[in-house]
Amino acid sequence: MKKLLGILVLVLLWCSNNAKAGLEEPGNINIHNDCIKGFEEARAEARAYYLKKQNKKLQTVVYGSCNVNGRYRWQWNWEKSTNLKELHKKSYEQCSTHSKKISNGECFLYSVNDEVVWKFDHQTRRKKLNYTRYWKYVFKESLYTDCDILTKKDPTTFQTLTYVEEKSLLSYDRRGGLRWANHFIFKAKFKKGNDITIRVNSEFKTKDKAEKQALKYGTMIGQLPYFLKENIFTLTIHKGNKLWGGGGRITIHTGSSGTNGKWKKCVEEHMVHEAGHSLVIGSSWTIAQEADNKFISPYAKEFPYREDVAETILWWVAVRCKPDRIYKSDYKKILEGIPNRLKYFDEQNYDTYPLVCK
Question: Of 223-237, 259-273, 295-309, which one has max mean pLDDT?
Fold first, then answer.
């Protein structure tokens, strides 16, 4: 999902920085190239937002932390501000809060507007960043074939939905960011694995209307292969034509048409994509990327750290679990285009229940 950013606070796992952090304190070591590329992605998006607004007073800042443990994951928060001092404080505090939750080390300043201030060998950095530039992709756009990799007719592990309460809570809403709002709270139970808390914005007016939304998307989560479903803990549902948010805490806007206008018809595939953001990927994923020398889609290529896994996992599900639902030509393209990524997923021995996969 594309995120246009004012400030972007990025937290990555894989590299470590043990120097003493602080407000406006740049990082000062040669971090792993995977972290560098993630930070660069953050800076590029922040800069794109800055330019799109065409507001010369608008400032963007990227803070990040890195930690070596053989896998990567990132989180980010963003705001927009014309007050640079206030922006540093807010950015640093948000980064530190998220970093602390996942024991990810201290946060350091990476860039201010378009200037990289992290202190490391920039010549080495440029060499490390260029290798994806000339890679191609399997599909010319982020396709969901005929929107039938998963459909309403597929089995689900969803069992029951229980109403808990109506409560005011802080949730992320792309129409206005992180804010307080009343929500109808439900608890969804499944045949296998953890319960999931479903929070439906009270803008749906009544408990019954909110329950219909919770049932619809709770059933959809139950259709996910277990290895994706097990990493989801909350689902928040809002109205509005905004992009969804993925990971362990999925955010849905029911009026979303997506960047290509197809999301309303492909919501099950869209859910697979968003759940894909919750996967914890080992460092060998980068090796698989380099060996393939190709991405599944332009979107994955544009954001190789934020979107490549989420874009690719749907097609792994397609060729391993639902090959009869995609064109033979597409099946062949995928096998030939990203064999090493497919092999990486194969080797994880994922629990795909309720899907039957080979």
Answer: 223-237
- What amino acid occupies position 355? L
Rounded to whole angstroms, what are the CA distances from 188 to 7, 158, 159, 195, 222?
Answer: 34, 7, 7, 6, 10
- Cα separation, 37 vs 45, whole angstroms: 12
CA distances (Å), 101 to each of 104, 305, 306, in order? 8, 21, 20
Rounded Cα gap, residues 358 and 352, in angstroms: 10
Question: Does residue 3 form part of some domain?
Answer: no
Q: What is the pLDDT of residue 310?
A: 93
The DSSP bridge pattern shows strands 108-112 and 61-65 to be antiparallel
Pick from 147, 304, 160, 296: nearest CA to 222: 160
Report pLDDT digits (tens) over 211-264. Answer: 999 999 999 999 999 999 999 999 999 999 988 988 889 999 999 875 455 566
Residue-wise pLDDT for 143-161, tens only, equals 666 688 999 999 999 999 9
Q: Are residues 250 and 302 in the same domain?
A: no
| 357 is a domain residue | no
Our count of domains for the chain comes to 3
d(CA 280, CA 70): 10
Tokens describing residue 176: 């206005």
Q: Could you give the C-alpha distances from 80 to 4, 113, 184, 285, 354, in angstroms and in order?
A: 10, 12, 30, 33, 43
Kindly state whether residues 289 and 254 are assigned to the same domain.
Answer: no
SS3 state of residue 131: helix
Q: Is residue 105 part of a domain?
A: yes
Which of 295, 294, 288 is closest to 348 using CA atoms? 288
Residue-number span of the structural domain to which 143 is assigned: 137-147+279-347
As a whole number of angstroms, the distance between CA 40 and CA 116 comes to 9
The whole model's pTM is what?
Answer: 0.71
Identify which of 154, 125, 158, 144 has the alpha carbon closest to the alpha carbon of residue 43: 125
CA neighbor of 295 nearest in space, from 187, 116, 134, 158: 134
For 170, the token pair is 């802080």
